[in-house]
Design brief:
Helix content: 10-25%
Number of helices: 1
Distance between the termini: 65 Å
CATH class of one domain: Mainly Beta
Mean pLDDT: 83
Shape: elongated
Largest sheet: 5 strands, antiparallel
Strand content: 25-35%
Radius of gyration: 30 Å
CATH superfamily of one domain: Fimbrial-type adhesion domain
């Protein structure tokens, strides 16, 4: 019995010394390695530059309720070609119009907001996302745009002015 206790005590002492020696020998710096693959032109945009402008021109005002459309729907074509990715997520960022939850007008016209929808339907709101799966290496994240009333208007003369709204489409490749 005494032999077993001594053998156990010796094993414990050896393990304690090894543990403290390992702790004392811990490095003061560590090298981190990061790896990945970089590809040129993940996708090629169908537009040039970083801005795409849609001009609604002169839009006739009407009296109406919240959401009443003003003028025509303007399609905005946004396609990426040569996409060698499994998919992408597009986030539409812009200033939210507090009255309607749509994109705010930064111009002088009052009670008007920008409504964006996906071509198949479905509202796109500030901070909203769309997941796109490329087909034949083409990713289409086009939108339909329209000006709408963001409040009930009974005196259209008070609404007149300019319209401008900036929406940034942030693209994350998967």
């Amino acid at each position: 019995m005494k032999f077993n206790i001594t053998k156990t005590a010796l094993a414990f002492a050896t393990a304690s010394l090894l543990a403290s020696a390992a702790h004392a020998a811990a490095p003061s710096t560590v090298n981190l390695q990061f790896t990945g693959a970089l590809e040129t032109n993940t996708c090629t945009p169908s537009w040039s530059g970083s801005d795409v402008t849609t001009d609604f021109g002169k839009v006739g005002l009407i009296d109406g309720n919240v959401g009443t459309p003003l003028g025509e729907v303007k399609p905005v074509t946004l396609k990426l070609t040569g996409c060698n990715v499994a998919g992408l997520t597009v986030t539409y960022n812009g200033t939210e119009d507090e009255s309607s939850g749509l994109f705010k007008n930064a111009g002088t016209a009052t009670d008007v907001a920008l409504k964006l929808t996906a071509p198949g339907g479905g509202a796109i709101v500030p901070g909203g996302q769309r997941n796109i799966t490329p087909t034949s290496n083409t990713a289409d994240f086009s939108v339909n745009s329209q000006l709408v009333l963001n409040k009930t208007v009974t005196d259209k003369s008070q609404v007149a002015g300019t319209f401008t709204s900036v929406v940034t489409a942030d693209i994350i490749y998967k």
